[in-house]
Amino acid sequence: MISHWSHENQQRAQQLLDAYPEKQSAAMPLLYLAAHEHGYVSDDAMREVAALTGLSSAQVQAVASFYTMYKRAPVGRYLVSVCTSISCYLRGADDVLAAIEDEAGVLDGETTPDGEISVEHVECSGACGGAPAVSVNWELIEGLGQDKARDLIKWLRDAKPAVVLGDEMQLLFGGRKSFDWGPPEKEGAIVALPAFAPYGTAKAEGE
Amino acid sequence: MSVDMTSKILLSRMESYPADSHTLERYLDTGGYAAFRTALEKMKPEDVVAEVKASNIRGRGGASFPTGVKWGFLPPDTRPRYLVINGDESEPGTFKDRMLLERDPHQLVEGIAISSYALDVTHAFVYIRGEYPKPARRLQRAIDEAYEAGFLGEDILGSGFDLDVTVHLGAGAYICGEETALLSSLEGRRGEPRIKPPFPAVEGLYAKPTIVNNVETISNIPWIVANGGAEYAAIGPETSSGTRVMSLSGHLKNPGDYEIVAGMTWRELIYDVGGGIRDDRELKAWVPGGASAPWFVPSEHLDTPVTIDDIANNGSMIGSGAVIVMDDSTNVVGAAHRLVRFFSHESCGQCTPCREGTTWLERILSRILDGYGRPEDIGLLLDVSDNISPGLAWPPAMTTICPLGPSATAPVVSIMRYFRDEVEAMIPGLSHAAASAANAESTEAAGD
């Protein structure tokens, strides 16, 4: 059943199953791993997670459909998420979303035809002190105005970063932060998933 | 009372050593893990529990429940027990746990280690929202360092005490911050809240006794053990002891996370700590404790103290310590709509009053905002709110398993209480006379 997965991801799956006293607890991290393997949470992936955890595929589907970060259809290489909850709303998030939609040429919830950029609005990103906030593949940028938001989209198109680094984007496009971030990190996302081991994290070149 | 910036507990390391406050080296260099060592070598588990009880610390996640009392609910003989740290932090306006995880993760790891020793826990979990990969990476690195240094794992520091810590990422669901929903999620299920009782302390993760505590709450434990519970209790008012990290956002000059001692007034918090209103505009209203909290207004609340009890006595809550400030340019219907839209989106769907009610509230506010409001919408907003939260009282009467639904009524009731003229002015053809006739009944329901 797990033959669809790369050898490396099969090993990662086993690590995740071993991390919990009961293996069904690994369902959520395994869904992230499945998304890493296939680019999104496919029906096959949900069956695989079911086989690994002992849950039924219906149960896994129920889980996958409950959480907004499990994408059950392919998304762009860069998932641009604009926070539009209250604190960001008060500081102009709707204008930032409109600028990003305009620059990317797609509306909220859509992906560019070349598969590069998806745009979505999200509920509170926990960056309220640095509002308005935008994240790319869940790597955060705070204090991002309309103009810089347009620059961000252009940069993603032109520079096509292989690893998405929050600290790098903050330096290039961000403004006021919720708090002092401290020294920049060179670890970031390689796909539209939270960059957390064992799924979707990478060091930038030269590290 | 002036702003006392000297009593820093949680933020002192990150403010003194911004370049490396997150590393084990700096943590050890500043006295880190000494409290854990003391606990293991010189204290019995019940001595640690006694210090936490003596500190009077109350949970920083939202409910302000006394931590020591919660710990006391564990049945004495059932094993295993679990400790679960709630780092789901999704309450709009809140960004303090993100900072504590990123900037001082060892402080939390030591708090987990001490608490686990006190509670006879050998496997602890930290549930971090999926949108927080960087905080999760920082914490995981700290945990890895702690294993390597012998502060986690088997036979810690030769004491015979074993402890494993696992970081679990959420995947975008506010409701998982509710402790029973969090446990459902951690068990690999939909994040749906469970009916209480049984409380998690009796029947939690895998139906075993489980303590769920917030990141900030547990980050205080090393200081409490190092300095004594009485010392902690002596900071600030008796029932709001210690310091707490307030997340200030919205139309302030200096939004950010600030560690404060309870007792200053809102005027001091907003104007001195937060730097006042941007562009020196007028303050219109603020949310005192996260999106779920009823609003405060300057005419009534500016000189009331920022303590857990004073806020509760004024009809709201300190919640997660998130203060969202709105200036006089704010369209209150727009702000309320944005808050209600959040709850509507995040409703798990189990309970009809919440699932249907939040959707109704969102749609009604949306059409008022778009200029298509109907005269009867004023009454309808209050009627729907009353069906979710009967009597529109605070704290709310519950028709639902968890408080999410009632929370959605807080912004609606707030704008009706303080800014009803503005709401009515947005509804075409609604004269005040017609409105008061049409809504006489609903006004009674609102309890004004």
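qc> Chain B touches chain A through 68 residues (CB under 8 Å).
qc> done
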